[in-house]
Protein 1
Amino acid sequence: MSTASDKGEWVKGIAHWREGETAFISVAFTWRLPEARKIAEYYRAIGINRVLVGGPGTFTQKKFCAEFADDVGGSIPDAIARHNPMATRASYGCPVGCWFCIVPKMDGKAFTFLDDFPVRPVLCDDNLSALPAEYQQFIVDRYLKAGVPLLDANSGFEPATFDDEVFARWRPVLKGPWRFGFDEATEGEAVARAFRILKDVSPRKKQVYTMIGHEPFDVCMDRIQKVIASGGEPYAQPFIKLNALVKEPAIRHDWTAQKLRHVQRWVNRHLWRKVRFEDYDASAKTSRSRPSQDGGRDE
């Protein structure tokens, strides 16, 4: 059983349940929609005639969803808890408008505040540091009053709006890693500032999403190496189109599907601590042991 002191478990992108004669299917990623269709067929086979489907994964594929659901979209309060019982949200929306992100298209660039949000250890707001300062403090105060540890600010902070005040505001309550993104080379200055602010934080608590595949290989690798050199831990995510029905990355620039897989493994398995990417042999049980650029630390 989950308690307020753990982060719970995610259902890996699709949740479904039944309330009376209605079935609900919540889909996080578009590539889970073919599975959602099969779940809808199951509910109809056992006599449930009304099937509702929603979630981020449906937004760019409403026509596809309409083929097997009676209603597409809409909002169900606290649906995120169906994906992880320890997860919650205090707001929706993000003003940044990144071209590769579904949030501003789905939830808008203006924030929607959920003042009565349930306080749980995993907070999944779209952009915490861009929220008004007073609302950020409101969230922090609710965690402190409830005595619930914030173990994961799941979607993280935006480097462009992450400053000393944001760090000081969240530091008393955030027990998990400081997450932010370094998805494009243009974010370099803001990311460098974030690292300066977090200079005294353990490397394992500075986790940086680094999208790969949408910029040339050398540009993406440079971002990854800057994260490592700055004392953070990169997490590589290949670029996948927002309407993809199959979980396959888009192949752009000088990338190949194999190179995307190799970089993702080298980064996310922390092999950069032991071997440079140039010396990484994905087919071998162990790669040649040559120090990585961060000195080959093995924590």
Note: Residues 133-146 form the longest helix (14 residues).
Protein 2
Amino acid sequence: MTVCIAAVCEGGKKIVVAADRMFTAPPPLNLEFETSEKKIEVLAPSCVTLFAGNSAFATEIIRGARRKLAGAQSPAFDAVAGKVQETYLEVRFAKVREQIILPNLGPDFLKAESLGISMPTYLQPQAGLYQQLAAVMANFNIQSDIIAAGIDSEGARLAVISHPGTTAWLDKLGYAAIGSGGIHAIMRLALGAQTSQNSAAETLYRVYEAKKASEVAPGVGTATDITIVDGAHAVECSVEMLTALSSIFNDSGGRTPTSLGAIIELMR
């Protein structure tokens, strides 16, 4: 229940990313609340991630990827996305073990495992139970989606890592959105003719506009964080910039704004 957006601009020299701050507590609480925590995480000076879904598991994934990158300042983006995917799979398997395997097989299996006996071998006399567990494990979803966005020697790169641990490369399309408001954001970017050739100012506005469009979806908060990533660093948009974006959006009344002068001035 959230929205995270990323869009390439300036011919692949920059990426604009945005997210809300809404968090959802699962049953039995069933609560939605906005906090001061941001969903845009910097992995390296020119690489960021954004997450939607289960924030607890996403936190494990992003922290694990950061540890694997070991403080690299200019990593190849393939390596960044690869580390995120690798950690996603590790976290998913750990949760499968914690929530499916151990509760169903118990301490006797742990003892057998310590002797080097695999689960298929352990359950060989109970083929029906093995098939049942295998089906449950295959469908187990940690309900976390992650956008990885960054710039390396090949230019701007975008990837979405999601269930069951696959990576979708969106470099060609040039934008991505995840979360309950993702479809609304994608449609707004498409209708706004967003491409990687648009200027940073145009893309900044289009991403803000997409974020506002996504707020009709359940679980999307009104607070907005935006960061601009280039080949050297990731810079958060100031309060002044967010105010200027809001003013232009409100004045345009849903139409294409006549001027982005206030945004361009603040970007200098």
Note: The mean pLDDT is 94.
